[in-house]
Amino acid sequence: MKLIKAIIRPERFDFVKKALEDKAIYGMTIMEVMGRGDQKGIALQYRGGSMMVDLIPKIQIEIVVKEKDAEMVIQIVKEAAKTGKIGDGRIFVLPVERSIRVRTGEEDL
Asked: Structure pTM?
């Protein structure tokens, strides 16, 4: 199993969620996070002056899938989250050793 962790623009989340649902991928964990990368923040105009915002709001999506489905999920997220501008995000893929359903005790679903 693989954990796919995607950090994307908040305004692209609905597109990503819909694209995943179209392929019957429903389980995900969502977090509002702050971060920066190559973009290094943005300059905002405030009361006639410029203010540098160093950390930008992002959405982090975590999805655990079977190994055979990982590449499909990565492609869906890449296509649905892309705007072509700096700050589109990043996808991380990590191995998952075990998965246990709390309610039933079933493992590796």
From this structure: 0.84
Q: Which of 64, 85, 83 is nearest to 20 (CA)?
A: 64
Q: How far apart are CA 44 and CA 53, in angstroms?
A: 7
Distance set, CA 67 to CA 42, 56, 105 (Å): 37, 32, 21
Residues 6+ apart with CB under 8 A from 1: 64, 65, 66, 67, 95, 96, 99, 108
C-beta of residue 72 within 8 angstroms of C-beta of residue 93? no
> What whole-number distance in Å separates Cα of residue 13 and Cα of residue 58?
10
Cβ atoms of 33 and 80 within 8 Å: the answer is no
Domain residue limits, the chain: 2-95
Measured from the Cβ of residue 39, the count of other Cβ atoms closer than 10 Å reads 12
Class of the CATH-defined domain 2-95: alpha beta
For residue 65, CA distances in Å to 16, 42, 68 come to 16, 34, 8
Kindly state the average pLDDT of the residues 75-81: 98
Q: What's residue 41's pLDDT?
A: 64
